[in-house]
Amino acid sequence: MRALSVRLAAAAVAAGVVVAGAAVPSPASGFERDRGYAALIRRASYGVPHITAGNFAGLGFGVGYVQAEDNICVIAEDVVTVSGERSRWFGAAGPDDANVRSDLFHRKAIDERVVDRLLEGPRDGVRSPSDDVRDQMRGFVAGYNHFLRRTGVQNITDPACRGKAWVRPLTVTDVWRTSWASMVRAGSRALLDGIVSATPPAAAGSATAAEAPDAAAVVAALDGASAGIGSNAYGLGARATTSGNGMVLANPHFPWQGSERFYRMHLKVPGRYDVEGAALIGDPIIEIGHNRTVAWSHTVSTARRFVWHRLSLVPGDPTSYYVDGRPEKMRARTVTVQAGAAGAVSRTLYDTRYGPVVVVPGTFDWTAGTAYAITDVNAGNNRSFDGWLRMGQAKDVRQLKAVLDRHQFLPWVNVIAADARGEALYGDHSVIPRVTDALAAACIPAAFQPLYAGSGQAVLDGSRSDCALGRDPDAAAPGILGPANLPVRFRDDYVTNSNDSHWLANPAAPLEGYPRIIGNERTERSLRTRLGIDQIQQRLAGTDGLPGKRFTTERLWQTTFGNRVHGAELVRDDLVALCRREPLATASNGATVDLTAACEALARFDLRVNLDSRGAHLFSEFALAGGIRFADTFDVSDPVRTPRRLNTQDPRVRTALADAVQRLAGIPLDAKLGDIHTDTRGHRRIPIHGGRGEAGVFNVITNPLVPGVGYPKVVHGSSFVMAVELGRHGPSGRQILTYSQSTNPNSPWYADQTSLYSRKGWDTIKYTEAQIAADPNLRTYVVAQRGH
């Protein structure tokens, strides 16, 4: 800390600024002895902090401080959630209120000391978090608390939590709990309602034979819980860029509100860590970004994060089940939460050797003879921050893969990366249950095999101990597929993913032969996936209307925000011809609808979702109503181009258009998108370009329709967007955080990047000292705290 004190003071003097905030400690101040903290903060344009510290504790301190400055209410509310106190502070309508259910789930994890146990063991970053990461977490908490103590709850400028009793100092345990909740987002947290509502049948009657639930119902019930997240990403190699350097497009589609918003920052411990990018609010480490020679992004993977175990129950005792012919008692735990005016709410929850008992009504029910438990393989994932930390220290994509192999930490995402040598990497290197083909064949009952083949949802025979997940010899933890069983591809042209499976990361070299639980292969791709590949192929061929061939970061940005609507490119002309031939159609409610105006609006539609595009919302509503139905079939030998012809003989096509017209009553069918498709910042309505993925839009923006009004509030879509080139003189390119850096309406960084996004603008990559120093809005200050 003494050396850091000198460096921070020197940095402030060199920058020619007045140091604000806490004084820079002197070398004799005793920081090292007292375990104090200090960090240099340089706020660049749009409020983006560049944080430098002498160690990871100081770095975490700086991150905690600036994130509290910008988003204290988001972090404080997230801590309320993971503390099982939502119903206490935000109210509950009754014992089955959503806040109560959330509290029961999180209170169960607290009572079981889930986080405490994850911190036990050797601090090697695999069996438990390393000292570097623990220091960073400790520093983050200290930085947040330092801001809160200096500001005071009553003086917080964000009205969302000013003066609220639920805003309190953090503990390190609080932040580990928020991390754990993020890990299980696509597993047990997605099944939260089914865990807290799982109750044995009132009377244990005779056991009935279990039937396989309807596959479509299962997928709808489970996948709906993971809605609201997605992404696009490109990793471009030497043969795809004009310079021969690697290049990465990051385009995650995440919520525009709440704790799953990204936060831009640049973090540096000289000689040890130097990464620019973004993290989810409340996380102290860069999760999508770049260092000097390698960049990466993530997309949500199709792999499943949990498996089911069908339990054969003991007759007359529905809380006991057989394993290898012997009865085994479920573990019952009574969990109690304080639900505000509703008082204390208690519920008994049940666990098995495999994990919690879960009920999905009508699909996985708890009967006298059968119950279902899940194994969530991310429930023990304590490796994530170490994994992202070491990714940030990798020199190239080969080293990055070695980090992935060792830590196996990505909870539910793919990785797409490229390096300065011009090599690109795709991998679904996420945490995936170890359901090999052999295990699936031997342990998934015949009645459940179609469910597994169709959706990857594995239901294993829980009455056999040999049907447990087991362990791959190269896996970082029991129960997950090891690196040898995971799809990985290195390329010198490109890799891509838009939330379909691994299969077409590069169509020239499909990834095939992997366990079904990871994702499907040789099947139809989404319109967004097809457009993502088509955009690359057209750019490399020089047929996309942009100058030249191959990518620069400028061309990559223009491609991303070209705002093509691929579904409309394929079917619009046939749809217009159909409705002109048959202008009257019957809507789903039986009403007759005149399609004449809709036909003409679609005929003038420019097949884009730009602010001046007319009729784009009409096509989106048509797509959401299920109107894109193809006449031709998928051809595995031409997966990017098929299917492509509208089935004009299918009556559901015209019905979907009639339904779209009805839904848009009161809104002009030929309105400009920017007039009706907006996001609100205070009293401002900012026009927002982009559109629905269901229509085949790459730049996804999900903005629900308000009848008679339009689309006034974005809930999900493009968030942190980065187009970065890893050049000889360092990284360069463009980036933006679409919803801006702060959730505080009184912050100067509440709407600035949103307005920038509206006009397709960008902020530049600012990684080198020269790039940072050139920022005209740079403001420098030091935050520091003595130990206690």
Could you describe the 3D structure shown?
Residues 1-22 form the signal peptide. InterPro entries: Ntn_hydrolases_N, Penicillin_amidase_A-knob, Penicillin_amidase_dom1, Penicillin_amidase_N_B-knob, S45. Belongs to the peptidase S45 family. One of its GO terms (biological process) is antibiotic biosynthetic process. Keywords: Hydrolase, Signal, Zymogen. The protein has 788 residues and is α+β, with helices and mostly antiparallel strands. Among the domains are: 2-171, Penicillin Amidohydrolase, domain 1; 197-226 and 306-376, Penicillin G acylase, beta-roll domain (Roll), CATH 2.30.120.10; 563-697, Penicillin amidase (Acylase) alpha subunit, N-terminal domain, CATH 1.10.1400. 30% of the residues lie in helices and 21% in strands. The chain contains 23 helices and 29 strands. The strands form 6 sheets. A 10-stranded mixed sheet has the order 18-16-15-8-7-6-5-2-1-29, with helices on both faces. Strands 3, 4, 19, 24, 25, 26, 27 and 28 form an 8-stranded antiparallel sheet that branches. A hairpin with a 2-residue loop joins β9 and β10. α3 packs across α7 (131-151), α17 runs antiparallel to α18 and α19 packs across α20 (651-663). The longest helix has 27 residues, at 56-82. Residues 12-34 and 204-210 have low confidence and may be disordered.
